Amino acid sequence: MRTLPPDHVLRHAKPDDLDALRSLIALSARALGAGDYVPAQIEGALAGAFGVDTQLIRDRTYFVVEHGDRLVGCGGWGRRRTLFGGDSRPDRDAAELDPRQDAAKIRAFFIHPACARRGIGSAILARCEQDAVDHGFSRFELMATLSGLRLYTARGYVAGDAIEWPLGNGLTIAFVPMTKRAPASAPPISGANAE
Known about the structure:
By secondary structure, this protein is α+β, with helices and mostly antiparallel strands. It has helices spanning about 20-30, 40-45, 55-60, 120-135, 150-155; strands spanning about 10, 60-65, 70-80, 105-110, 140-145, 160, 165-170, 170-180.
């Protein structure tokens, strides 16, 4: 069972969370990505590859973890074709996936640097996988940052060949496509601290 630290609450993200989500994503990317990317790559990714996708919030497939009055983690899953990127990415595809043949998209995980490696990402991921299974999906896919590889590998995702995603101005950023087949029954998260 995936449990959150005490006094942490996992819930659906709401439109009222947008400003806090933008701040969390920028903070997480800059601090936790610093060991894998140079600052120019992180800033370039924050202009499109990283960011809030409000479609996920409208679809109720994006989650946040709160501790007190602040957000300390976020992540979600998508039933649409867009694999990654925020609202500012121009090539988004909102077409619905067919769970009988398509993989659910695991999307936009960011953890507050002060709360990294405390099980928050794992708890959100478990919730996303269970929700996707409940919607008929049997496979998951994602595009991992280099700093996210450890979480996804520990949770059974298999890495493909890294790609270099163009950021503009001659910059690229390395991402790693990953896949996983849903287990017979995904592990539940603790009912005591999940909505």
